[in-house]
Structure formats: structure tokens, C-alpha cells
Design goal:
With 182 residues, the chain is an alpha+beta fold. It has one domain: BirA Bifunctional Protein, domain 2 (2-Layer Sandwich), CATH 3.30.930. The protein has 6 helices and 7 strands, in the order βαββααββββααα. Strands 1-2-3-7-6-5-4 form a 7-stranded mixed β-sheet, with helices on both faces. A hairpin with a 2-residue loop joins strand 5 and strand 6. Helix 3 packs across helix 6. The longest helix has 17 residues. The two termini are 18 Å apart.
Length: 182
């Protein structure tokens, strides 16, 4: 899977759509250190100005029909939560439709967007915003009490590149079909 890295970008999801429109082969991933227009579900703003957190999106063509694809974000959340739980020996919860939490605080949000034509999905993007090691005190006040970071959860230093590698591995299994539950 080809991976594109950016320092700062408007939105990793938006960049996936632009790359697909320009002819990029799928699947592929876009990673940014920061996003200026990160978004979550219902077009909510996703705080993504801290370069110590992970902002990664995957562009792909799903095998599912649109009605079978509706719960894809929570499937991704469960796979990531399970894998991070194995690595860090912690139990992460998933909260429908698209969140990963720890002790009731949001660790990760997942946004899946797609283009549909003639009853089929012609392209989809799954964006993952995961708080890895960012400084929660730099988050907007309304997020400081409801968010957490992976580093805070496991009480040790965690690097974005290491977590990105794990996320790419999880998504490759889902996208390339080696995970039979995806």
C-alpha cells in the first residue's frame, strides 16, 4: 500500500478524494502531522493541530454493497481497539458509531465517507484520528476533560510512527481481505 506523508494538510480524507480523482491506485493511505480542517461525523470539527497525534486516512474500493457498508467505521474501531489492547495490555471500548474510548474518554474517532454511483460504492475513505501523545492541555477547553491519549492510557511514551505502523497493518488486513470479519 502506497503511503503519502504531509506536514500539514487541510484534511487527510479530502486528500484521499483528491488523489483518487487524480488517478491514484487503491488502496493507499495519507498521513499528516496536523490538519487545518480535520472533520468528524456530522461535519463536526476534529481537533488535529497537535503533531504528536495520528491523522491517517485510507482510500479504497469496498467489496460491500452500500447497505452492507454502513457499519464500517465501528468495525474498524473494534479492530483497532483489539489490536491496541493486545499491544498495550489494556481494554479499549468502542462506542457506536465510530469511537474508541478508554475509561469513558475519547481516544480515537473514525470517519468513513464514500461515493456511490448506480447503487455501488465506487470509492471510500476511512479517516482515523488517534490521540497518541499530544498534550491534552493544548486541546480546546471543551475537549480536555473528555479526551485522552494513548500515552496517558498506558502510562508510557508512545510514538506516532509506531502507532501508524500498527494502524496500517490493521487496515491492510481489512482492505486486502486477510481478516475474514471485515
Amino acid at each position: 500500500m502506497e503511503i503519502f506523508h504531509y506536514g500539514s494538510i487541510d484534511s487527510t480524507n479530502s486528500e484521499c478524494f483528491r488523489k483518487f480523482d487524480a488517478g491514484q491506485c487503491v488502496p493507499f493511505a495519507v498521513i499528516a502531522e496536523t490538519q487545518t480542517q480535520g472533520r468528524g461525523q456530522f461535519d463536526r470539527k476534529w481537533y488535529s493541530a497537535d503533531s504528536k497525534n495520528l491523522y491517517i486516512s485510507f482510500g479504497f474500493i469496498p467489496r460491500q454493497l452500500p447497505q452492507e457498508f454502513q457499519n464500517y467505521s465501528i468495525i474498524v474501531a473494534k479492530k483497532i481497539a483489539d489490536r491496541l489492547g493486545q499491544i498495550f495490555d489494556l481494554i479499549f471500548e468502542t462506542k457506536a458509531p465510530n469511537d474508541i474510548c478508554f475509561n469513558g474518554k475519547k481516544l480515537c474517532g473514525i470517519l468513513t465517507e464514500s461515493r456511490i454511483a448506480h447503487g455501488r460504492i465506487i470509492f471510500a475513505v476511512t479517516g482515523i484520528g488517534l490521540n497518541v501523545a499530544g498534550d491534552l492541555s493544548s486541546f480546546p477547553l471543551e475537549l480536555q476533560t473528555v479526551a485522552t491519549t494513548l500515552g496517558d492510557c498506558c502510562k508510557r511514551a508512545v510514538s506516532c510512527p509506531a502507532v501508524a505502523t500498527v494502524i496500517v497493518e490493521v487496515m491492510e488486513k481489512l482492505l486486502l481481505g486477510s481478516d475474514s470479519t471485515g
